[in-house]
Amino acid sequence: MVIVKTKIDGKGPYNFIIDSGVGIIIITDPSLADSVGMQSRRTIKLSGLGTGEDFDATISSNISFDINGIKGNNMSAAILRKDRFGLSNYAGMPIHGLIGYDFFNSLAVKFNFFDSTLTVARSGYLKEFKKGLKIPLTIEQGKPYLEARIKMADNKEVTTKLVVDIGAGHPLMLDNMVTNNTLPQKFIVGNLGVGLTGPVSGLISRVKELYIGKYVFKNVITSFTLTDSATTTGRAIPRDGNLGLGILKKFTLIIDYQNNAMYLKPGKDFKTPFEHDMSGLEYYAEGDDLRTIVINRVEPGSAGDITGLQKDDAILNINFKPVADMSIQEIDDIFKSGADRSLILDIYRDKKRYRYIITLKRRL
């Protein structure tokens, strides 16, 4: 996630996720609207990927934001009546909302994931990379799209229209593909994340190759939704999926909506193979300080299952290091750090402490 400190109507700062996959500003924490004193003007219905039904959100107009001196005025925001995403639990820190189109619309934005910096300038003012590549974008209903070719497991090549989604953690998500018999034999059934209307279920596997301009990625970890998002009622822009941070962070990149372009320069991790979680554990942060890590699902037959870990177990330490001192990203990286690697986990269950040795197991 790309998280920035943001002031809303002069108050804050609050933690907002920069998310090119959203149009209107979304306030996910209803208490923020109360503390800032936002006035709701009307109600809209939001829909999106997820297993739940569409739901109502209220619209507040004429709000302002300030991100380290970058200001936007007279903006509108959708305020959720309750936090349906639980982003704070998955980020391990308080998250108050998402900001997308209003941030990107009139600016060129440079993301350097290797030194964790964000550079912003007027459109056209950032220098293009000498050894990079310009990728054409189309901006439709406030979201950026690109064209990419994908070689599926059966060697069939398809041309896809993908949302460039800085806010998505996965490398690649594809819709409409499961019914076309393009999956390899090896895949995982699981939770792909949380959409606007709840959990997104689907399959996780690999595609043989992904082509973005001249760049080729092999054996890309890919999420396959079981929902046809391109033909979902109310979706005006047909698409085949999205390109997430798992791919984008391999580059230093510039997104420039005004010039309908994205500029890419490979980074030091460009050739690093794609790996998926090897523990079989799904977990989240809870507690007032979001420092308690709780397992909410154990994949049957996975390393975690074989070890004896259970739903609702709290992870205290990994290799004797307290998880309270780690970020969620650090924990994620440990659990995909290498097949056959053994880790010592200290677990709290039913008011007792237990110690387990888990041996990571490559599942894809």
From TrEMBL:
Residues 280-337 form the PDZ domain. InterPro entries: PDZ, PDZ_6, PDZ_sf, Peptidase_aspartic_dom_sf. Pfam families: Asp_protease_2, PDZ_6. SUPFAM superfamilies: PDZ domain-like. This is PDZ domain-containing protein.
